[in-house]
Every structure is written in structure tokens, then in C-alpha cells.
Amino acid sequence: MTTTPSISRRCVCGVLVSLAAALFLFPFFQHAAHWPADKQLSGFTPRTGAFPALTPQTWLDGSFAKTVDLWASEHVGVRGWLVALNRQIRYSCFGQVEPAPLRKRALVIGKAPVLYENILLLDALRPPQIPPEKMDLFAARLRRTQDLLREQGKAFVVVLAPNKALVYPETLPAWARKRVSETNTDSRAFIEALRRHDVPLLDTMALFRELRPQYDDLVPPHAIHWGHQGAWIAWQHAIPLINRQGLLPELPVPETVDVVMDKPSSMNRELRDQLNLFFSDHGDLIPSAYPVVDPLPAGMEPMLNALVVGDSFGFTLVDAMARSRLCTVIHFWFYMLRGKGADPGSFDSRAVRSLPTPSGNGIMSRNIENGQRMLKDKNLVVFVITTFNIDKFSWGFDRLVEQLYGNPDAAASAPAEFDEEIEVNLGD
User: Global pTM?
Assistant: First the structure.
């Protein structure tokens, strides 16, 4: 005998089916109507724009389906709320926000309120990557770069920027604290090789570990890079290395007369802006320390025309150099791919201006013409690099200097940058 479902059971089933349909269709409705407003995600830039066009070619080769899939993942309605909810569950339940611990750009939750980008941890966890003979060749090439620049009247100094994970290991997540070590990086071999070849080097890793009891803001809790105070202290310690070369009039080391606590610059809160959570112990804005610098002695004029070459730690280093009032010109060749400029009188690393270039957008290839332009009339070259970029071997700056001022045929012997992805076996 068959029992007819009761009206109440039919109603419950109908409600559940309707609710499921509504939940399924709501993202499409939100995308079409733009109501309610979606949650905006910081640090997210869609790779796709308008809905992809369907053509016989894209249909037959399968690219249409792939493009639609990517478009849907980036533009589906209420995506921001769903992403934030997913990250909040991971954060609240498991102490993480991203599921890919080996992805270089993943955000890692440290001891509150400290945040890390995973590339810092991977650098401190992996074994050294560069063979000793190749590291020695790189150091020899930097010494050759120094000698060629010196013949042109240009001082040269290398600044090794800090890895936050090695400066503040106690703030790392618990699983990483006992695993990270400077011996896992290429930095120790790099330092030893440059010292063997007598290349002027500022090791801010050692400097910051020594000074950290005195300063709270060498590398801000929400930053990858050194803070304004950390970069300023680095520049103060770089000046004696420049003076020892005897190429320029004696540079004074400007004193810090005050430190102003103010809202963090974009670089000092870069990781905090990527949290995309509803609430956390890591999300409060933390004021940053901005040094106030003693003016130059009476009658002294700026005497440095400087070129900074290197990675993103160069931005705040340029800020420090501008604060010192020792520079009339500061150009920054970012990864040797993009030209940046600074007006030392008003520079702030929160708003670095592009240099005038033929293309008008600051993009500069690594060729002789741009090398001549960037090195013209400079009397100081600062090469800044952090630990996880040592294997990029100066992005070819040493080869370019050889082509400009040395033996063009010898430039080919310089070591080329590694292309391997960082891989780490975390073990047990």
C-alpha cells in the first residue's frame, strides 16, 4: 500500500528546493543587478574583462570553455563575500587564510599582529640554491663592476636587505619557528663571497638583529619590506662604506632628531590589506615610525647624484636617501625593468614618480642605451637586493656595466639568473 506524502512534507520539500534554487541563482542575479553590493577584495585584480566572445575557432579549440570558466570564477556574483567567508573560516578554525602553503605569494599568519608573505619563509626553509663556484663568480663580477664604476668616478655599494622571517623568527607561525635558519638561504655564502672579493657590503640582516632591541619598526608587522625607520638606519650605515672609497667629498652621517608615529604607508601595511577578513587579531592599522632628520651643516650642498638598482626594497631606501638631503638626483632602476625617479626635496615612497622615458610609462629594457641614460652623471650606485633574490645575479647589471665600460665580449661570461621555482620539503 503506497502512502501519499502529507501536505506538510510536500511543503518542506518545496521550500528546500526553492531555497536551493534561490541560492544557486542568486549569484547570477547579483551580477546582473549589482544588488546587493558585493564585498570589495583588496589586492585582487581580475585577469578577464568582458564576457568572452564565442567564435567557431574558440569553440572548436576549447579556449572558449576555459576562458568562460576563468571569467566565471572572477566575476560570479557575491564572489567577494564568498571569498571572505572562506578565508574567515580558515583563519578562525585553522589559523591560516590560504590553502597553498608552498605558493610563493601566499599570505601566512604569524603571531598576532605579525603577517608574512610566504616567499620569506620559503627562502628561510629551503637549502641553499647557488653552487659555490657560481656564487664566487658572481662576487667576482660585482668586484669587476665596482672597479669599472670606480674608473668612471662612481662609488658603488651593495646593500643586502633583510628577510623578516630571520630578523623576527619568534613571530613566525609555530610550525616554522624551529625550521627557519640563515644557513638555509644563499645569504651567508653571498656575504662571504663579497667579503673575499672586497666588495663594499652592508649586511642589514646582521645589523637589524643587533639593533632590534632598540627599535620596534625596523620591519613593520604588516610589511614584507623594511619600514621607513629601518631603511633610514640602513642608509646611515651605508654612508661610511661610501666614504671609505675616497671618490667623493666626505659625506656627513645625518642624525635622527625625532621620530613621528603616523598612519602606515602602503608598503608598511601591504600584507594587512590582503587579509580580506571580516574580523581578526591581525587587521588593526599599526602606526609607522617616520624619522625626522637633522638638516645638512650650514653651507653644505647636496653632492650625490645617485642610481639605485635592485628589487622592491629600493623604494623605501630611496625615501631614506631623499630624507638625508645629500642627493640632488635619485633614480631607481626597479628590477632593471622600470625607471623611477625622486625629487629629494619632497619624495615619499608612498608616491614614487616614473622617470621620463621614450614610452612615457617608465618601462625600460636592459639595454646599453638605457644603461647609459641611467648611469649618466651619476657619482653613486647602490645595488640593493634581498636574500630571496640573490639567485637573480643582479638581473644583468654587472653584464651591462661590462658592456658600457669594459670588454663587451667578456659580459657573456657573467652568471645568468636562475629560473627554478622555490621548492621546499617541510618533512614531518
Answer: 0.83
